[in-house]
Amino acid sequence: MALAALVMSSHVLHDGFEVLRWEDGGIGAGAAGLLWSEGVLAEVVVFVVLGPTLLRWLGPAGSAALAAGAGIVRWSVTAVTGWLPAMALVEPLHGLTFALLHLACMQMVSVVAPPALAATAQGIYGGVAVGTMTAIMTLVSGPLYGALGPRAFWVMALLCAAALPIAFAMRGIPIDASRSSPI
Fold first, then answer.
1. In degrees, to the nearest 5, what angle opens at C-alpha 138 toward C-alphas 40 and 76?
2. Residue 156 banded pLDDT, cuts 50, 70, 90
3. Rounded to 5 degrees, what are φ and ψ at 181?
4. What is the Cα–Cα distance from 79 to 59, expressed in whole angstroms?
5. Could you give the CA distance from residue 180 to residue 183 in angstroms, rounded to a whole number?
6. Is 170 exposed, middle or buried (0-12, 13-18, 19+ CB in 10 A)?
7. Using one digit for the tens of pLDDT, what is the confidence trace for 35-72?
8. 81: left (phi over 0), alpha (psi -120 to 50) or beta
9. Which of 178, 41, 147 is nearest to 98 (CA)?
10. What are the DSSP calls for 161-174, one per residue?
């Protein structure tokens, strides 16, 4: 839950201020729309095609670590440049930072929560853990971007970095293949 809260809430600054970042980098509205579409397409590709395979290969802990690592790269690049080619390279990481992490979390919920409490666990995951942290980051992101400008994305990279030790700790949770389906 904490890992998901950290990585998922790092998207709030992107969702609220990325287009401003792109404008500061000289990216026009048309290219910004294409960049946004690129991130959405990457999300769909990971949900439908790549995510299940990555989840089978890496397991939920490895997939969560990959998602957090992708967030560190994505937000670090965004903190230092708004150059269109760089943005075109990091925007597809949304497929990992959002979709792969969500798939990993859903598999982990299926492992740690008794079947009778699966819906409750999903509600706590989405509504309490991710929802609360996202609300907090929504309140913080405006003043943060106002004070730091694009450097505020370093804070988002730090959120993802803080999630890495949690992902590594998740490796100790046994995955019972009979109770878990790798999506």
1. 60
2. very high
3. -110, 130
4. 30
5. 8
6. buried
7. 999 999 999 999 999 999 999 999 999 999 999 999 99
8. beta
9. 41
10. HHHHHHHHHHTTS-
